[in-house]
Sequence to fold (660 residues):
Amino acid sequence: MTSVSQAKDAEIMENPRKTLLSIDDMHVWFELRRFGFGHAGYVKAVDGVTFDVHYKETIAVVGESGCGKSSLMKTILGLYKPTKGTIVFEGKNLTDLDEKGMHWYHSHVVGYIQQDPYGALPPFMNIQRILEEPLIVGGVKDKEERIQRIHKSMEEVKLTPVGDFLQKYPHMLSGGQQQRVVIARAMIMEPRFLVADEPVSMLDASVRVEILKLLRGLQETHNLSVIYITHDLSTVSYFSERIFVMYAGNLVEKASVRQVIDTPLHPYTKALLTGTSEPDAKNAETFKELPPGEPPSLVTPPPGCRFHPRCAQAIKGLCDVKSPPDFEPAPGHLVACWLYQ
Amino acid sequence: MNQTNTLLRIEKLVLYFNTLQGPVQAVDGVDFSLDVNRAVVILGESGCGKSSLAKAILRLLPRNAGTYSGHIYLKGDDIMAHKDDEFRQNIRWASISMVPQAAMNALNPVMRVGDQVAEPAIVHLGVDKDAALSLTRKMFQHVGVPDDFISRYPFELSGGMRQRVAIAMALVTSPDLIILDEPTSALDVLTQANIFNVLKRLKKELGISFILITHDIATSSELADDVAVMYAGQIVEVCDAHRFFEGPLHPYSKKLLASVPRLHGDQQPEFITGRPPSLINLPKGCRFADRCPARFEKCVEDPPVIDTNGRKVKCWLYS
Fold:
């Protein structure tokens, strides 16, 4: 076990920018049915998304509810099959994997950190059972080894002294401790990358930072890649290298954290940054300028750029007709907006 | 402070809940006051008693409520002395209304939203249904809900729109004060910013006062004139927003503000070690002492509330 992962680590060190996961033109559509059988269109939750995740890299997917970020995440986790497009992990196409292959993918490749820790933990299992389950499913036959690994991963998420927690049930823990259990469970099979779905949105401000720092530490010690899904731009800058901004099923801006926060290009990204508050008493004296309306329906998205009905800078005859491709106005800064052609 | 300008003054408000383990001291001697057309933010982490404070002000007590005492003066009148019937008719919703936590799920799913907003007007203002519905239309305009939504059901509305309806419902009796309990915690960034724009406009145009209860320090600054920080059932600091966000005094407030992640600048957020005390077994002396970096010998005694330049802080460091 260790020699394999050490060899992997050595390989990662040599090629820090090598691609771990590559997503190409992914579409996830859900069919709508009328009266149970008539076809009534599709919910285009993810509609043509392309990106790469490198080794040891944290990327953040930022978007509002209903923009398709959860469908994107669940497809990466292998819970949905993409309607079109591919997900390639280290040369293996996920859609080609058989049942055994998917089992390997779920137990050895990817770890999942849920949003609501209390909802994610079975209330009738104690912490030891909760953490033992993935080991049993993952094929760790030796009871001694399982106990050892449970101890190790609980120490890593700082649920110490371990003995105090093993026999406890989720409701006996605080929100922060529950989230640590969720993280330990995601980490216990030593996955290659983690998908974290709003891991701190349910927690108090003071605990939030603690959990983010813990995740950052785990990512560094285990050379993990992390896909961090959130709607909160303010936590992103402490945690990720690149940000992908998602709107109505499309990625509208892809760039490094500093580029997005200091020089946002897409009008939607700018609106998101305006909407994010920083503690300052002057906020109470001014009104914020925000785009009117609400995100479009994913069944009948507007033609052309999906943001154009709400965009103050929309160009008539272009933005409402043709969907914008990715432009690269600055090196490494991709934006799907006609303003930058 | 000018007496005529004070809308609400709370003195030594106490609300305990009886449990098998002993009384939960959720609100334990809270004092603060609020002027007309101002907004005070009650900041605190979960379990500090901030929602119980809102319930105590509105006398929305659960069955296991134990000790409930103190004084709440609304425009000089002690509303704690009112009988339950009087309180329900003249105070709750007529003078003080509330937007409950998760208001978007607090609407009745089988009732048209217009009827739901009109209901308090019919009950408290004694108007007929048509008058109440035209009042509802006016309220919808104030909070930015399209007119034709009046005959829709809650499930046909987005989260942001439902939140606006809940605000309209609190607004329809033209109360003096609205208590907002975590009004935007379940909403998206842009919706949240929009709701705060609405609240700011209501404050400016209708002169309404607000008590905003939240744990979200960054967004609380969107509405705050004053900030009151709550910890373990007590208010530990009261200060105007300008001076608070520039530099709070109480060690807990300092830590709380330092935990906020910032968009710009290199300042790393910090976290507070340890956990808040249980409200059943509260420590003697200062309740924050266990987690406080500036603790010294005096902290074993209960600190007094010290007034420095109009800022009130409950900490021995400033005595």
Observations:
- The longest strand of chain A covers residues 38-54.
- Residues 105 and 295 of chain A are 34 Å apart (CA to CA).
- The two ends of chain A are 50 Å apart (CA to CA).
- Chain A touches chain B at residues 64-65, 174-175, 204-210, 213, 231-235, 237-238, 261-262, 271-281, 283-284, 287-288, 290-291, 294 (CB under 8 Å).
